[in-house]
Amino acid sequence: MSQCSYALLSVVVCLLTLARIVFYDMTAAMDTGISPSASKDSDSLYPIAILIDELRNEDVQLRLNSIRKLSTIALALGPERTRTELIPFLTDTIYDEDEVLLALGEQLGNFTHLVGGPEYVSCLLSPLESLATVEETVVREKAVESLRTLADKHSVIGLLPEHRHAGCSVSFIQEFRLPLFRNLCKDDTPMVRRAAASKFGEFAKVVELDNFKQDLMTAFVELASDDHDSVRLLLVEGCVTVAELLRPENCDPLRPVIIRLAEDKSWRVRYMVADKFTDIQKAVGPEAMCTELSNAFIALLKDVEAEVRSAAASRVIEFCKNLPEASRENLIFNQVLPCVKDLVNDVNQHVKTSLASVIMGMAPLLGREKTVEHLLPMYLMLLKDETAEVRLNIISSLDKINEVIGVNQLANSLLPAIVDLAEDVKWRVRLAIIEYMPLLARQLAQQFFDEKLLEYCINWLSDHVYAIREAATNNLKELVGKFGVQWAERAVFPKVLALASQSNYLQRLTCLNCITVLAPVCGSEATAKHLLPTVLKLATDPIANVRFNVAKTLKSIAPIFDPAVVQNEIKPTILKLLEDGDDDVRFFAEEAKNIYLLTSVKVKKHPRVCIVKNIDAYFSKFCAFERVVCCQMCHCRLQMLYPNFCLMLSNNQQRIIMATN
To answer: How does strand 609-612 pair with strand 603-605?
Structure first.
């Protein structure tokens, strides 16, 4: 049937339904002697009449809006008329745009209370069943979701009233649905078998164990041997649920299935088995981990496909933890470690990245001596890998090996490799190590960090590559946040301030950049005491680039200072820079001046407000446009200092009022 025919049929059904409703209303009115126009039933018909009219509209958005208002319309009609009129009407008009049908499926899932409660929920099944058979996948999925919502919230008697006489016992329901699901697992259409495989685990959870063994285990084995790899792929996740359902003592029939899937010809199936292997391992239990299952995982570590090796490598530590304690050490040394050594040298960077993210966790399993003997060489190789993610994964997990071998051994083994990378001739390698320093700081003690790594953090500030100097500046900010201001005053400030005396102006600029970054972390007191004098001193530097960076620094650190510091120490420097002979210096000094405009205005305090006096006289030297700009700049400054600040302009006069606590 063509789309036009569907549309005509829909219109006819709508008209017939409307006529039937109107006829019912007129008959009721005649029986009671009340005119149709005055009857209350006629008033109650208005919402559904509007619904029908909007559902017939050519505008999809109007039809969609009407569907979204179904709950309101059903509430106005009442439960009985919703069941007898609205639901049949919706059932007869399931021919529309997918977006409308999707909204309808979502609405019907919440209609239980609108049709009169759980005992009447069966009337919702018909429209949802129709929606579950449409062509669009998202509509079917939403309809099935709503059907599951109804099934979860209500008794089977309400859903299947025709079987009320059978008492709807558990055995009856099992017999009712098990044959259906078995048939779906054997369906000729691969799409149906895929759906059955994807839901096999969920279905198995609600089936009694005896029924599963008798009826579903055969279907499970058949799906595991299906011709289509997409069916076998979706069944892997169900293996976990089936293993949990059977329990370790009954998992013997499941082992051949797992092994066959782990050796599947499709790499996607093997990938899924590798990804879910440890979950299956936990479900079957350590005692059921026979040699065949262990060998299956080892084979996945050696798989020809990089994606499979990567998935297996990411699960290797969890696999080792789940092995039986009696044979764990033997299996790790004889089977797992040789594979891990090969993966360390894998040609694929994703494999090494996955391995590096977990390999440090093997140290607690092997102990100190064997970690030093077997694992440290692999850690060193990964730490020197050219892939940044590999190095990051090793450095971010140093705490795990630190707990096993101790700080001294760590300093003698891994840290020399880190130091070598810190001095690498390739600036990108040095940059990568700088980015990892905060991670190292979080895992190492402060004293140990000062002795071994602080020197490199300071030396990077004098690197000939700007990107290194910039990264080193941000690195110091992270370190101060970790170790505190007192540590910065002792270990960082003297080295940073020493750069201000260097003959190379780039190092003096680095000093200013460090102060700009560190000031917000260190606070106003430490900044005013240790850092600000150096900034003010550099305002007389012979290099113009240094002087205008002084203006930029003063502008950046302004919000952390008290007004008194700004007025007495910073303002004279800004005024001096305003008279500089270099255009760029004056430009940035002018920008900095706008931040400190407010400091030259006298303030008279009041118990509740502070009113700035003589503001008009202060702004009188500017034109109207400049006065507005200055007022706005003051507004920005005050907002940074006082959250409750507000700016008022009235009677062509600028007046600044600041609320105080």
So the answer is: antiparallel
What distance in Å separates the CA atoms of residue 431 and residue 436, rounded to the nearest whole number?
A: 9
Tokens 């208002």 sit at which residue? 69
Token digits of residue 335 = 């089977």
Question: In what helix (H) or strand (E) does residue 318 lie, and over which residues does it extend?
Answer: helix 316-321
Question: Contact at 8 Å (CB) between 115 and 123?
Answer: yes
CA atoms within 13 A on the CB side of 357: 15
Beta bridge partners of 580: none
Beta strands 653-659 and 609-612, pairing class:
antiparallel
> What's the rounded Cα separation, in Å, for the pair 99 and 232?
32
The one-letter amino acid code at 568 reads N
Any idea where the domains of the chain sit in the sequence?
1-166, 602-661
Give the tens place of pLDDT for each residue, 318-331: 999 888 888 888 88
Q: What is the pLDDT of residues 373-416, one digit of tens each?
A: 888 889 889 988 888 788 878 877 777 887 788 767 777 777 78
CA 116 to chain centre: 41
Three-point CA angle 162, 167, 168, nearest 5°: 75
Beta strands in 52-161 (DSSP E): none
1-166 belongs to CATH 3.30.700.10: no
With contact defined as beta carbons under 8 Å apart, do 559 and 536 qualify? no
The pair of structure tokens assigned to 479 is 């370190």
| Whether 468 contacts 434, CB under 8 Å | yes
| Percent of the chain as helix, strand, coil, to the nearest 5 | 80, 5, 20
Distances (CA, A) of 424 to 159, 344, 458, 482, 506: 72, 22, 16, 26, 22
C-alpha span between 178 and 203 (Å, rounded): 10
Kindly list the distances between the CA atom of residue 587 and the CA atoms of 517, 566, 577, 590, in Å, as whole numbers in the listed order: 22, 20, 9, 5
How far apart are the two ends of the chain, measured CA to CA in Å?
A: 76
Q: Report the residue count for the chain.
A: 661
Residue 347: CA count within 13 A, CB half-sphere: 4
| Chain CA centroid to CA 300, Å | 30
The CA distance from 515 to 506, in Å, is 14
The values of phi and psi at residue 650, to 5°, are -150, 145
Q: Count CB neighbours of 505 within 10 A.
A: 16
502 sits in the region (left: phi over 0; alpha: psi -120 to 50; else beta) called: beta
Q: Which one has a higher pLDDT value, 239 or 597? A: 239
Where is 564: in which H helix or E strand?
helix 563-565
**C-alpha to C-alpha distance for 366 and 333, rounded to whole angstroms:** 9
